[in-house]
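INFO batch 0412 | record 1 of 1 | parsing
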Amino acid sequence: MPGRVGRLYVCICHQVGEHEVHDCIKGGASTEEAVGDACEAGTGCGTCLDRIADMIESYFGQPARL
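INFO prediction complete | emitting tokens
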């Protein structure tokens, strides 16, 4: 698939990559639910929710709000 070489997925269910999740977080999504609302990551099986929470914590410097 052109354009997908080396793409790192956060959410396999919805094929959401790291860049999309980072863009949502930079846009103000500060919870896993807000990221899911913005790009659907974490709204499938839920396996990626811990990774999304880690990305939120890394960006904001504090744990994701519930």
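INFO post-check: Helices lie at 18-26, 32-39, 49-60.
INFO record closed
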